[in-house]
Design brief:
Length: 381
């Protein structure tokens, strides 16, 4: 029996698509209805359990749109497959909650939602960087408590960022956008660590540096660090933009925290387990001038004991992509992944997915992460 409320859209559709949370906007529903699907949406704000999702999948389900809070491993994917499922899309760009290898073995294409989160998430990293550097949350609490008695020369002194070194770990789309915002907007010098050199980022910041020089101003620079440790030792701000997998789990642990400057700022908008959160609590407790800005947590939605008591940490509830435009765009992409595969469309190639947000979108599934492994046909414009 279903323990949560579900709403049914386009009940006459011949395909059946399950969506485990209500999504913003209305266009995504039109896309699925246009692919002749009935759409069943869970209207509860509670996180569904695996059993609840399995019950909802039932005996027949053509596709699912799920959330990063749900473990789409063998169990759930197997239920989807057994119900005749042909596609799964995460409502997220990250897909560490999906066992893609098992999905591939079962022949299930797995979609994600890249391209619409880039600037939005980078902006959140910028916001957390400044909130930590300038102690915004401490100041806010102080005001609300009625403790402000007048301007003082040393009230809530923070860190000036201009001209300092920005360490970016993971220079993919979001990391690069954040690096550019901080270099071009706030004149920080970028030091990045990434398995591959990001020449486009280096050239872009070099060109901006030349422009500044042409104005007689000090240029900004962009270099690739040889190691994570080298970056941690040198950077004044460290922002994490990696995927989460075995190689990045607890990438920032106690020994690496100890390498960072005493007054460094650590920002995490990627995935919580990239930081050993208990080690971070201990480090922030012992180093009051060290600051952190966190959007994601190791055991989301829980926090490690002590984290919420620290004044030198700014905490927000995984809202890096939470703008109306981005969340509606993610819904369009997730629905287009499911509708595209169910309609037998090929898979879009390339990074620019903006055409899917326009009227008359391409007849393609925008982003299927295991398309190559499944030898799905590529979209030829
Ligand atoms: C993602 O998409 O992976 C974000 O963490 C949530 O928007």
């Amino acid at each position: 029996m279903r323990s949560k409320e579900w709403a049914v859209h386009n009940p006459g559709g011949s395909g059946r698509v399950l969506v485990t949370k209500e999504l913003p906007g209305g266009r995504w529903l039109e896309i699925l209805a246009g692919a002749d699907c009935s759409v069943e949406v869970c209207t509860s704000r509670e996180i569904l359990t695996t059993d609840e999702i399995k019950t909802a999948i039932g005996g027949r389900c053509d596709g699912c749109i799920g959330q990063l809070t749900e473990p789409w491993g063998k169990d759930l994917l197997g239920s989807l497959k057994a119900a005749g499922g042909k596609v799964y899309s995460n409502y997220a760009v990250g897909y560490n909650n999906v066992d893609v290898a098992s999905a591939t073995e079962m022949g299930i294409p797995v979609g994600n939602t890249p391209g619409v989160l880039t600037e939005t998430t980078a902006e959140m990293a910028v916001a957390l960087t400044f909130a930590a550097a300038r102690r915004l949350v401490e100041g806010d609490r102080f005001m609300r408590a009625g403790r402000y008695r007048g301007w003082l020369p040393s009230l809530f002194l923070g860190e000036r960022l201009r001209g300092k070194t920005l360490g970016v770990i993971g220079a993919g789309r979001i990391g690069s956008a954040y690096a550019r915002m901080m270099a071009e907007g706030h004149r920080m010098n970028v030091l990045y660590f990434s398995p591959h050199a990001n020449r486009a980022l280096e050239e872009r910041i070099a060109a901006y540096g030349e422009f500044l020089e042409s104005l007689g101003e000090r240029p900004v620079t962009c270099r690739r660090a040889e190691t994570v440790e080298a970056l941690l030792r040198e950077a004044d701000v460290v922002s994490l933009h990696t995927i989460l997998d075995d190689t990045t789990h607890h990438l920032i642990h106690a020994e690496r925290l100890a390498m960072m400057k005493e007054n460094a700022i650590l920002v995490n908008t990627c995935r919580g387990p990239v930081i050993d959160e208990a080690a971070l609590v201990a480090h922030c407790r012992e180093h009051p001038d060290f600051r952190a800005g966190l959007d994601v947590y190791e055991d989301e939605p829980a926090m490690k004991p002590g984290l919420s008591e620290l004044d030198n940490v700014v905490l927000v509830p995984h809202i890096g992509s939470a703008t109306v435009w981005t969340r509606e765009g993610m819904a369009v992409l997730a629905a287009s992944n499911v509708a595209g595969i169910l309609s037998g469309y090929p898979v879009w190639q390339g990074q620019d997915i903006s055409a899917f947000l326009e009227d008359d979108p391409p007849k393609a599934a925008p982003s299927i992460v295991n398309a190559k492994e499944l030898r799905l046909t590529e979209y030829k414009p």
